[in-house]
Write a structure and sequence with these properties.
Elements: H1 5-20, E1 26-28, H2 30-43, H3 46-56, H4 60-75, E2 80-89, H5 96-99, E3 107-110, H6 114-129, E4 144-157, E5 163-166, H7 172-175, E6 180-186, E7 192-197, E8 200-207, E9 213-220, H8 226-237, E10 243-245, E11 273-278, E12 280-287, E13 316-329, E14 333-346, E15 369-374, E16 380-385
Parallel strand pairs: 2-3
Antiparallel strand pairs: 1-16, 2-4, 4-14, 5-6, 6-11, 7-8, 7-10, 8-9, 9-15, 12-13, 13-14, 15-16
């Protein structure tokens, strides 16, 4: 199944806006949030419906269909696993029209047993990400009536692996500690290019995976912010910023981190591209309600009244919305995973029934950007900004006499 162009534009647009709102090293997945927002928009009314539609970049009455189409297309991408999960309290009655629009096998039950519910939610996150995300990032409260979650996990192996070596860099925060560098040589000059964007020049490198899942590394001018660099990367994907490929770059320093020169050799040799980068392993936790305007959740979080009559006649509001995400870039390949969860709480007058559950919070710590994407549709699955690359490992035999 092909990915609809409207959905790709919408998800990538949300990626760019999220990047602009981010600070420091991080990783996030707009593709992990967008389908869930779409299902909520389909069931919302009033101001909440309009705000969610604005965040999605699509009319609310088209959102659920676009989400189903997107999830179906993603299910057909090699190396990518996706899932949607829904858990409700035993007495919450759902609208059949809404649940019928969710993927099959989605619905589970919140039992009210805190330990059992936490174990079931965490087990789902582990199972759906192959162990890359260990806990469901949801705040389950006494008044939580419904949890809507999505999982995304991608894995790819490089068509051409890198060689590991200590990273040589003059960037002082990194130079203070030996870092794990990655290097490889290629004759494929089109893997590198430079785009002149309104915010500055950006060098982009395509690192291709063996299953059409790729990672584009992005290095901007030093004065550029992470949001500007990542936004430029999204614009490059959409054709907004033409790229001058490696074979057409002028001699000298045509872009950030680039040097193009003539070199003498003893025998005829083809042009060569030498690449050095840094390995990284990022984890992050995001409170989506802290960016409620970005995600169209401003009104939906107001528990004075219900906003989702399409889900249930029982009044519901968004009580929590979080994402746990990781990305790992190494010599042989790349993997990333995200679990996003919305906790829906009772709205309006307090209901008589109450569930007692655990309450959790998740916080994860994390200077080039990256976009992990599906090569053919150019759908961005994960994006991030690297500020703390992996240290160079110490091997036991290095200390042997």
């Amino acid at each position: 199944m092909r990915v609809g162009k409207a959905a790709v534009r919408a998800v990538n647009g949300l990626t760019a806006r999220w990047a602009a709102a981010s600070e420091g090293g991080t990783v996030f997945s707009a593709a992990g949030v967008w389908p869930l927002l779409a299902f909520l928009a389909d069931a919302a009314d009033g101001r909440a419906r309009g705000e969610l539609a604005d965040a999605l970049g699509l009319p609310a009455d088209e959102a659920a269909g676009a989400a189903r189409e997107l999830l179906g297309a993603m299910a057909g991408m090699r190396g990518l696993d996706t899932a949607v999960g829904l858990w409700t309290g035993r007495t919450l009655e759902l609208r059949e029209e809404w649940t019928a629009g969710l993927p099959a096998g989605t619905h589970g039950v919140l039992t009210g047993d805190a330990a059992a519910d936490r174990a079931a939610l965490d087990a789902w996150a582990v199972r759906r990400t192959g162990g890359l995300v260990a806990r469901m990032p949801v705040e389950v409260r006494e008044d939580t009536e419904l949890v809507l979650a999505g999982a995304l996990a991608m894995r790819t192996r490089w068509l051409a692996p890198f060689e590991e070596l200590p990273l040589e860099t003059a960037y002082q925060p990194w130079a203070a500690v030996d870092r794990l560098g990655l290097r490889r040589t290629s004759v494929l000059l089109d893997r590198i290019g430079v785009a002149d964007t309104p915010d500055g020049c950006v060098t982009t490198l395509k690192v291709l995976g063996d299953n059409a899942l790729d990672v584009h590394l992005l290095l901007g001018e030093e004065r550029m912010t992470p949001g500007q660099v990542l936004g430029a990367g999204v614009g490059i994907l959409g054709g907004a910023h033409p790229v001058v490929p490696g074979g057409r770059l002028p001699y000298g320093a045509p872009g950030p981190g680039l040097s193009v020169e003539r070199v003498r050799c003893e025998r005829p040799q083809p042009p060569r591209l030498d690449v050095t980068t840094a390995a990284y392993d990022l984890t992050a936790g995001h409170d989506l309600l802290a960016l409620h305007r970005l995600f169209g959740l401003t009104t939906a979080r107001d528990a004075d009244q219900g906003h989702f009559p399409g889900i249930s006649a029982f009044p519901l509001a968004v009580g929590s919305a979080e994402q746990a995400v990781m990305a790992r870039f190494g010599a042989l390949g790349f993997e990333a995973a995200a679990v996003t969860a919305f906790g829906m709480v009772a709205a309006g007058a307090p209901p008589e029934r109450r569930h007692v559950t655990t309450r959790i919070s998740a916080a994860f710590d994390r200077p080039f950007g990256f976009l992990a994407l599906h090569r053919h549709s150019r759908l961005v699955l994960a994006a991030g900004w690297v500020t703390d690359p992996l240290p160079f490992p110490e091997y036991p035999w290095e200390h042997d006499e």
